[in-house]
Write a structure and sequence with these properties.
24% helix; two-stranded antiparallel ribbon; 1 helix; 13% strand; 79 residues; alpha+beta
Length: 79
Amino acid sequence: MSKRPTPKKQQANSQSSRRYKTFQNKARKRLMNTTSLSKCPKCKEDKLSHTACSVCGFYNGRSVLDKDKEMDKVTKVKA
């Protein structure tokens, strides 16, 4: 089995702390709940920010999704 390489020079404590802090901050950001919910101005339901409302289909004051229209199922055609 190969042995682990030993460092040529001693690492400064500040460098070790900086590396550990960077890891800590990245892990903290990853674990935080990053989804932010906002209220739809038309129907007052919760929706994801910067997306169209899934209930009424409005985004930025205009209708983006037509919720009244029935959608047909799309199937793949084999060539």
